[in-house]
Task: inverse folding
């Protein structure tokens, strides 16, 4: 055999005994916690039809999916996301069951990723939960509390759960008639908190001043909660935006009452690239680690696309990043 | 209290940035242009600067080794880093342009473009629905059209002198470039108050963001 210049493809890696042990321990702690709160572990196939992921609304970037060709010529993809297949599974099998279902998972996710320097960029582990059949403050608080407890459970003390509202932004931009490409550009500027370029772009738009001010204000809606809610109410120019912000306020206050204030932050400019989120969204950050280690939110429109209309909220922990972040903080770097 | 770390690309942005911080009362007396030292700290304000290669600033910030970075928009686009781009600092102003010999036909089929910025190049031409061949070079890009390596170049133009001295002209402007203040997302979220105060101070000194709901 000709000697390969590289024995392992980019973006995947081996896990040696010591590291595997740490990962097992971390996963074990998370699973124990999920079980304690009645989340039952499930598993979906490693590969499924490309159409499943590509036809639904607000899916992830199609170029990022790793594709295979089946014997009958159909395109398959390696599981690029945990939530979509679980929504599919629930819609198929639980239509006639009790509406309230709690599921958990620990699974590998596969994505094509440009960041090939990162050895875990194409295969990584996610552990998470999904709560079906329930919306409202209680469900949102349950899930965010569980996210906080999960990070506690694995020994992280200094972290932030950053909460946003996907629909607040959607209902604002619904009023603006712009080509998709241009709107995506503005969304990107908001996501990157590029205040200066956002101002330049928004100033040139042919829309009324009220909307311009709202667009410029969205990425600044972070920080001191009282101030954020007050300003958010000011730019909420329709009933839906007001309701979303009111709901978020109640969720936030309930979490504060539970003693979680020091872990919480607010950012209404938080726009997740996974567009299936329909309401509350959140990300978890650990001090000193650059990327989010936890992502979650409500996605009430997803199961409907598979023929079963039910409410849903959940989160996923990036287990490998979490371990890396914990190790880095231990090293005192 | 942990210091807040600024990563600054070595070169023309360093003096600008140090000058800006000085106006805010943050000083690094040990720093002078010929110093070989790469790390400086202001004990009072707990702010540290590290000098890195310009193209590495984004990596330091994205991975959290630095909380804040000062970087040219050119290098930032090329890096594709996932960071907050919070302030347009206004200095380090120049522009991206397509340049070449005066009679270059940019509409020819199979245009060959040499550049240090392959991403910017392909983005620009694909926006114009034009398929081009991009050759990535690491320096002296102006040479490429002169020796027949490429039809034209995509590069940053500050005064235009290098182009002129080599008999090249700007054929098309792509966009303006200025230095940007970038922030690591986790630092922004987990060290909110201090970082925010700093950003706001810097912002107040360089530009205005327009009407906001206060």
Result:
């Amino acid at each position: 055999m000709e000697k390969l210049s590289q024995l392992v493809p980019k973006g995947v890696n081996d896990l040696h005994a010591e590291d595997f042990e740490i990962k097992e321990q971390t996963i074990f702690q998370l699973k124990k916690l999920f079980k304690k709160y009645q989340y039952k572990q499930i598993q979906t196939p490693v590969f499924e039809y490309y159409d499943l992921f590509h036809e639904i609304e607000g899916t992830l970037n199609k170029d990022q999916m790793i594709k295979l060709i089946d014997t009958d010529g159909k395109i398959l993809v390696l599981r690029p996301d945990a939530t979509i297949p679980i929504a599919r599974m629930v819609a198929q099998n639980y239509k006639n069951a009790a509406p309230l279902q709690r599921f958990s998972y620990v699974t590998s996710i596969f994505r094509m990723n440009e960041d090939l320097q990162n050895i875990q960029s194409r295969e990584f582990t996610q552990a998470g939960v999904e709560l079906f059949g329930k919306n409202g403050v209680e469900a949102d608080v349950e899930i965010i509390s569980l996210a906080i407890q999960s990070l506690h459970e694995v020994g992280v003390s200094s972290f932030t759960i950053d909460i946003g509202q996907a629909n607040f932004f959607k209902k604002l931009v619904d009023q603006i008639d712009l080509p998709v490409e241009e709107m995506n550009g503005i969304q990107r500027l908001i996501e990157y908190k590029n205040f200066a370029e956002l101002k330049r772009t928004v100033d040139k738009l042919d829309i009324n001043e009220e909307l311009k001010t709202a667009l410029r204000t969205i990425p600044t809606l972070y920080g001191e909660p009282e101030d954020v809610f007050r300003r958010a109410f000011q730019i909420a120019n329709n009933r839906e935006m007001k309701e979303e912000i009111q709901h978020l306020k109640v969720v936030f206050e309930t979490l504060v009452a539970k003693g979680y204030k020091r872990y919480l932050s607010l950012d209404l400019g938080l726009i997740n690239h996974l567009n299936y989120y329909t309401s509350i969204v959140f990300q978890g950050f650990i001090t000193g680690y650059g990327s989010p280690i936890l992502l979650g939110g409500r996605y009430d429109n997803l199961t409907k696309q598979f023929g079963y209309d039910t409410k849903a909220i959940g989160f996923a922990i990036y287990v490998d990043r979490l371990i890396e972040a914990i190790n880095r903080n231990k090293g005192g770097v | 209290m942990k210091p807040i770390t600024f990563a600054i690309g070595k070169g023309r942005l360093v003096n600008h940035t140090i000058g800006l911080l000085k106006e805010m009362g943050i000083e690094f007396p040990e720093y002078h242009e010929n110093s070989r030292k790469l790390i400086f700290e202001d004990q009072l304000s707990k702010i540290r600067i590290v000098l890195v290669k310009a193209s590495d600033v984004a990596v330091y910030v994205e991975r959290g080794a630095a909380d804040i970075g000062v970087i040219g928009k050119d290098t930032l686009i090329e890096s594709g880093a996932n960071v907050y781009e919070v302030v347009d600092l206004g200095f380090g102003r120049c522009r991206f342009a397509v340049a070449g010999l005066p009679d270059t036909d940019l509409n020819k089929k199979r245009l060959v473009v040499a550049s240090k910025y392959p991403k910017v190049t392909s983005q620009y031409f694909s926006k114009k629905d034009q398929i081009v061949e991009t050759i990535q070079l690491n320096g002296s890009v102006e040479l490429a059209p002169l020796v027949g390596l490429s039809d034209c170049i995509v590069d940053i133009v500050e005064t235009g002198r290098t182009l002129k001295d080599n008999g090249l002209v700007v054929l098309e402007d792509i966009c303006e470039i200025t230095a940007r203040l970038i922030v690591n997302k986790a630092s922004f979220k987990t060290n909110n108050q201090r970082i925010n105060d700093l950003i706001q101070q810097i912002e107040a000194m360089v530009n205005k963001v327009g009407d906001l709901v206060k």
